[in-house]
Amino acid sequence: MKTLIAIFTLLTFSESAHAESRLRFAYRNPTQGGVSERIEIQGDNDSGGVFIGACGRDGKLCACEFRKDANKIVETTKPEAISYDERGNYFRCVFSGKGGPVSFVRITRKNFSTSLLPIKSELTLLDLMGASLDMNRARQIYRYSCEFNFLQKEGTTTQSFDCTNTQVSCDPDGDPSKNFCLLKARFPYFLYADNFTNNFRNRPTDRLYNGGGSGRLCGMQLKQFNCADQEGTPVRNFGLYGEQVGYWDTSVQLGAGPDLAPVSYGFAARTSASTNECPPGLEKRVFYRAEINTSDINPSHNFTSGLLSTEIMSPLNEPSPFQINKLSGGHCDGTRCSIPQSYSWGVKSTGYSKAGQTEFCVIPAALFP
């Protein structure tokens, strides 16, 4: 029995030495109110086995020791005030605030302790990456959008359009000479960039109808889509990690532009299995999708029904509805068409939904330089 006890003691001291270098940071969210505060202590990659072995899967075999400075202990948590999230590999410690302000914290148990960590109220990208991840693979995700012009004239299909004078109005005033309109809609797309690579080459500028031929359609030089306006400028939206490692384990697939299938842009972190929270310093995102039904829009057009528009946003911020607007007043006389110029009205609005989508965690855009 004495031999077994000696072996156990040796292991715990070895784990303690190992754990000191396996913590990234301690974080106090500055938005918290009240006297008591929650401090989150993030473990580094592949350190979960050490913490589970020492503190149990729920973390309650250990305590959080709060200090005012390196020498003065202010408070040590009871089991109900500490928990460990295995998926995100971090501890949650609740500080009561009764002993006054604290600046340092560590995880302790008999024969086990981590080094003291300063408690931060603001994190950097370097904090999130830690010593074991490559900063160059922190991948920025950008959003931009393209405005599409869909052709509306009686007899039009997704495969064909002609210049015939159909005498069927698409204008609000019902004038049959105004037989040609444009249905306008914006679709969002996404790009990525890190210090090794990017896919900005996949962002198009625009495309003309019949662009592979004369560049004209019934005498018109008309863009099928335009990505070069102000809303087509890529704007940094959030960040992923470029490799599947540690808690960066959830592939996020996005499309770079029209006609390009979604591919993996990198990896996000999963939310906690018990609280649905993100690891400290990360932000929650979810896919929103709008399926655009155009089968009830008349007269006929080339806007394919059932197209999907995909946005990524906070679960608390639902995107504005997908909008189809109309330019009217165009005329096709049998050989040529004039481009519609009169803005009419919103033809159709379709709400986005996150139903059935799984929330995930990303790097805040503000952390990138």
Overview of this protein structure:
By secondary structure, the chain is mostly beta strands. It has 2 domains: 2-122, Immunoglobulin-like, CATH 2.60.40; 137-367, no CATH class. The chain has helices at residues 2-20, 48-55, 125-129, and strands spanning 23-28, 37-43, 63-67, 73-76, 82-85, 90-95, 104-109, 112-113, 117-120, 138-152, 180-193, 206-208, 223-226, 235-241, 248-254, 263-270, 283-292, 307-313, 322-330, 342-350, 360-364. Strands 10, 11, 12, 13, 14, 15, 16, 17, 18, 19, 20 and 21 form a 12-stranded antiparallel beta sheet that branches. Strands 1, 2, 3, 4, 5, 6, 7, 8 and 9 form a 9-stranded mixed beta sheet that branches. A hairpin with a 5-residue loop joins strand 3 and strand 4. The chain is elongated. Residues 1-19 have low confidence and may be disordered.
Largest sheet: 12 strands, antiparallel
Strand and helix order: HEEHEEEEEEEHEEEEEEEEEEEE
The gyration radius over C-alpha positions equals 29 Å
Helix content: under 10%
By DSSP (H or I, 4+ residues per run), the number of helices equals 3
How far apart the termini lie comes to 57 Å
Low-confidence stretches: 1-19
Shape: elongated
List keywords for this structure.
mainly beta, 12-stranded antiparallel sheet, 9-stranded mixed sheet, disordered N terminus
